[in-house]
From TrEMBL:
Keywords: Glycosyltransferase, Transferase
Signal sequence extent: none
A Pfam cross-reference name: Glyco_tran_WecG
InterPro entries recorded: WecG_TagA_CpsF
Name this protein carries in UniProt: UDP-N-acetyl-D-mannosaminouronate:lipid I N-acetyl-D-mannosaminouronosyltransferase
GO molecular function terms attached to this record: hexosyltransferase activity
Length: 250
């Protein structure tokens, strides 16, 4: 399916929608994306996935380097109601929002089910240690882990290689994690990478996720803003995004 602002994703026959300079894959449910990452016969997708929200779309509009970095990930999925609404309106299909944190947790369970080896990168060392324990308890084959404050990238690369990992979640926040993924994937072309931001903190209870009602009302971003007011600068472009989206100017 192709039109002026929609096209078919090369990674799969997944329709994508152009939002500003970013093409976003229209997934109808999370399982569709999970099965793209680890196929029903256990094949792991070689490449990277990245969550797209209005903040990233706006950053890409202002900075071609950000746009280029986002386009390096083959699987761009909508994590942000502002992006999903626009996609639904343009496609006239029930595109689903896929929260990155939930996708990551489901992917870990899929790794457990298919015994796909995982190497964890990112977060503070105690958070990482707790994340690892919890995942191993769920049956996830965690073959290695390095916290997000390492200073020898070559050593990290060597460790991942030696571990035989196939899936590598990177929890270092944007754009740090995407930049690292861009470098690592050149050396590890058979692996799957996913930037997961603060997911390890949420998973271990260091950072609270918004209560269910806020999530249902799609106000998770507001909850995060109120509980971490320092994020105001990062979310400042949201209003501008909404304005452009309402008038179909993006
Ligand atoms: N972090 C890291 N290395 C750094 C800076 C940050 O591993 O040099 C980790 C930090 O411990 C936290 C996560 O990155 O776990 C930041 O999450 P944030 O919520 O800022 O990411 P977002 O989801 O907003 O991209």
């Amino acid at each position: 399916m192709t039109s002026s602002n929609t096209s078919t994703n090369t990674a799969e026959s997944i329709v994508s929608v152009q939002i500003g300079p970013v093409k976003v894959g229209a997934f109808m449910h999370q399982q569709q994306l999970l099965e793209t990452i680890i196929s029903p016969d256990g094949q792991v997708f070689a490449g990277a996935a990245i969550a797209i929200n209005p903040e990233k779309v706006m950053a890409a509009r202002h900075d071609p380097k950000v746009a280029a970095m986002l386009s390096q990930a083959e699987l761009r999925y909508a994590d942000g109601i502002g992006v999903v609404m626009l996609m639904r309106r343009r496609l006239k299909q029930p595109v689903q929002r896929i929260p990155g944190c939930e996708l990551w947790q489901s992917l870990m369970l899929r790794c457990a089910a298919y015994q796909v080896p995982v190497y964890l990168v990112g977060a503070r060392s105690e958070v990482l240690a707790q994340t690892k324990v919890k995942l191993v308890h769920q049956g996830v084959p965690v073959v290695g882990a390095t916290d997000g404050y390492f200073n020898d990238e070559q050593q990290l690369l060597a460790e991942i290689r030696q571990s035989g990992a196939k899936v590598i979640p990177v929890a270092m926040g944007s754009p740090r994690q995407e930049q690292l993924i861009a470098r690592l994937r050149q050396q590890l072309p058979d692996c799957f990478f996913m930037g997961v931001g603060g997911s390890f903190d949420v998973f271990t209870g260091q950072v609270k996720r918004a209560p269910a009602l806020w999530c249902r009302l799609h106000l998770e971003w507001l909850y995060r803003l109120l509980s971490q007011p320092s994020r105001i600068g990062r979310q400042g472009r949201l209003v501008q995004y909404l304005w452009l989206a309402i008038w179909e100017r993006i």
